[in-house]
């Protein structure tokens, strides 16, 4: 998987939030095989220093970090958050989220394009959390984005791929761009489906963190991503309406 | 001088953002700062002067999805 010129063997990115404990988080990251994990920023209390402790845990994993702008509802919030993330995490990568709808957490595509333009001009490498909208995708690419992250379905909904046609169309429109399905995946088959469509990778968080056994689910998703990728690259059989015998009929014994 | 730190009132004697961070107990903590909604890079904190009722955000790494 190519992220702004860097190649990663793993095609699974993993969130770090809502795990039952730091130990389970570390074990789940290891079981998932993820080389990139998502992180965020919040107000720090001088007394608790909770952020420092979390950062130590993440550094131990050796993973690359992808800061997000989760919770931002405006361009200025997203831009300022990205600037602060670049300093704290020491990376130009940023997953831009500009949330436009409170119920679905659907991205505000207009704000997303503007934030992407501003940040790209400042040297950021933007990974845009978007929908499958092709016009917005065109605008994002024009604004400098080279990694699009369309939703599978609303964040945390575990509904899988809501619009397979839209995701397929996006893959066809941008054959050379890195496309990652982000959000809404619930079970490993959802990830396999995204990979079979030709997506370069998936990003998941709650599906693993909130599973009964996060480590087991992380392994399940790792296997599904690998299986789905092989399904895409190995020349899948085209569907047809009627049966075709899988056992050759030539030389069949006659008992009539 | 009274300022607002992460949404809560605070009283500081320091005249600069760097001084305020030290005074508030952040010391060498890995944090990023914003003053009145504008990002202030770490190297500029020492020359960033504070005024009464300034709003400071001090943020650090957190779990994300």
UniProtKB/TrEMBL annotation, chain A:
Boundaries of every Thiazole synthase ThiG domain copy: 3-248
Catalytic class of the enzyme: transferase
Superkingdom to which the source organism belongs: Bacteria
Residues in the signal sequence: none
Active site: 95
Residue ranges of the TM segments: none
GO biological process: thiamine diphosphate biosynthetic process
InterPro entries, per the entry: Aldolase_TIM, Thiazole_synthase_ThiG, ThiG
Pathway(s) annotated for this protein in UniProt: Cofactor biosynthesis; thiamine diphosphate biosynthesis
Protein family: Belongs to the ThiG family.
Entry function: Catalyzes the rearrangement of 1-deoxy-D-xylulose 5-phosphate (DXP) to produce the thiazole phosphate moiety of thiamine. Sulfur is provided by the thiocarboxylate moiety of the carrier protein ThiS. In vitro, sulfur can be provided by H(2)S.
Assembly and oligomerization: Homotetramer. Forms heterodimers with either ThiH or ThiS.
PANTHER family to which the protein is assigned, alphabetical: THIAZOLE SYNTHASE
Protein name, UniProt field: Thiazole synthase
Automatic annotation (TrEMBL), chain B:
Signal sequence annotation: none
Pfam families with a match to the protein in the record: ThiS
Lineage top rank: taxon: Bacteria
InterPro entries: Beta-grasp_dom_sf (IPR012675), Mopterin_synth/thiamin_S_b (IPR016155), Thi_S (IPR010035), ThiS/MoaD-like (IPR003749)
Protein name per its UniProtKB record: Sulfur carrier protein ThiS
Gene3D superfamilies on file: 3.10.20.30
CDD domains given in the database record: Ubl_ThiS
